Amino acid sequence: MQIIKGWYENGYPQEKIYDVALSDNRKADPRTGKVPPVGNTVNVKDASYTNTIGDSELSATWTDPDFKDEHHAVYYVRTLEIPTPRWSTYDAKALGVAPPEGVAAAIQERAWSSPIWYTPEAKLVKQPAAYPNLHQIVN
Known about the structure:
Blueprint: E1 2-9, E2 12-19, E3 73-80, E4 84-85, H1 87-95, E5 106-107, E6 110-112, E7 116-118, H2 134-138
Antiparallel strand pairs: 1-2, 1-3, 3-6, 3-7, 4-5
């Protein structure tokens, strides 16, 4: 489960992904922060998979470690599902042919929440010198 944060800083859009809950007791590499993949149980030949990896439920309490009260921000939760056969893999199995070349035989779907928007108080937003009344235009 991940939190995706978007915001503008110095006039440019920014984005950061925070891993907040991991299935199967996986841990992020302390040196790189990278998370190992959940695994893959897809059997391409049979166009099947087993639902024996991942977790059916994840939960976490999270606080933005990089929060700046003067930045507008948007947050949403994204969950990465376990790999399953792509529809072209199911079709290939049904037709008795090999899956198409150059197309991944499995796909890892994603689910996401509605966004949560943070709007700072107008007095906290720093205005560029060229636009001293910008808060009146955007608010």
